């Protein structure tokens, strides 16, 4: 089953409908409902559904268009999906993408000032998403950097999520940051299911 089109949609302009479709495809592919991957899909769906219920159609559409992972940090989407360098290279690019999330997310929202006027009743929605993301980020960090001391790991995670918990951060900025974190974590969980060229094919290219 080719998941790349569904994943690309979620990484460029995510919606609850796109996540629902991916959920069904993953179940059909044999992923058990209790798998961490489907936990991320479900939590992201819940977060976007809550945001959409409190935003106008135009505001939600604009937010979805801002959440374009392919435009972040100069890392093209095609370098992550179907990478000729294989999963090791894709994992390295994913790590770079995660490290650049805060600065790039805030730069994006600063350049898109027309996304504004969101409800002020979103704090609990952001906090619940941040709680889920913290635990998932911990697991991802432990996989990518097993040698990192636990205290430093938690400090890094707190630094990454802090703007989303700051009462002075605009709701739309929180939504962009948390939405992008969901996308990156989802991509990390999906790497084993995405198409990569076999080593024999890569050795004959170029």
What this model shows, in words?
The structure is a single chain. With 206 residues, the protein is mostly helical. The protein has one domain. 66% of the residues lie in helices and 0% in strands. The chain is built from ten helices and no strands. Helix 7 runs antiparallel to helix 8. It is globular.
Number of strands: 0
Shape: globular
Secondary-structure content class: mainly alpha
> Over all CA atoms, what is the radius of gyration?
17 Å
What are the secondary-structure elements, in order, as H or E?
A: HHHHHHHHHH
Task: Please tally the helical runs, counting DSSP H or I stretches of 4 or more residues.
Answer: 10
The domain count comes to 1
How much helical structure, as a percent, in the residues?
A: 55-70%
Mean pLDDT: 77
Strand content: under 5%
Describe the largest sheet: none
CA distance, first residue to last residue = 28 Å
Q: Which regions are unreliable across 5 or more consecutive residues at pLDDT < 50? A: 73-77, 197-206
Short description:
With 206 residues, the protein is an all-alpha fold. It is built from 10 helices and no strands. Helix 3 (36-53) runs antiparallel to helix 7.
Secondary structure elements and pairings:
Elements: H1 4-12, H2 16-28, H3 36-53, H4 57-66, H5 86-99, H6 101-110, H7 123-144, H8 150-165, H9 171-190, H10 199-202
Helix pairs in contact: 1-2, 2-3, 3-7, 3-9, 5-9, 6-9, 7-8, 7-9, 8-9
Identify the notable features of this structure and list them briefly.
disordered C terminus, mainly alpha, 206 residues, single chain, 0% strand, 66% helix
């Amino acid at each position: 089953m080719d998941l790349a089109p569904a994943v690309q949609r979620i990484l460029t302009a995510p919606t609850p409908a796109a996540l629902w479709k991916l959920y069904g495809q993953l179940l059909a592919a044999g992923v058990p409902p209790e798998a961490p991957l489907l936990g991320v899909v479900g939590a992201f769906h819940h977060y976007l559904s809550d945001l959409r219920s409190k935003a106008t159609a135009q505001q939600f559409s604009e937010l979805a268009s801002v959440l374009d992972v392919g435009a972040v940090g100069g890392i093209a989407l095609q370098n992550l999906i179907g990478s000729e360098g294989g999963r090791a290279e894709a994992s390295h690019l994913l790590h770079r993408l995660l490290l650049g999330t805060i600065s790039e997310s805030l730069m994006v929202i600063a350049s898109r000032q027309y996304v504004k006027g969101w409800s002020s009743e979103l704090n609990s929605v952001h906090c619940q998403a941040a709680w889920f993301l913290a635990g998932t980020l911990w697991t991802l960090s432990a996989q990518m950097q097993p040698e990192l001391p636990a205290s430093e790991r938690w400090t890094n995670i707190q630094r990454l999520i802090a703007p989303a918990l700051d009462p002075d951060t605009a709701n739309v900025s929180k939504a962009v940051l948390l939405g992008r974190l969901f996308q990156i974590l989802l991509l990390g969980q999906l790497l084993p299911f995405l198409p990569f060229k076999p080593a024999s094919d890569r050795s004959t290219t170029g």
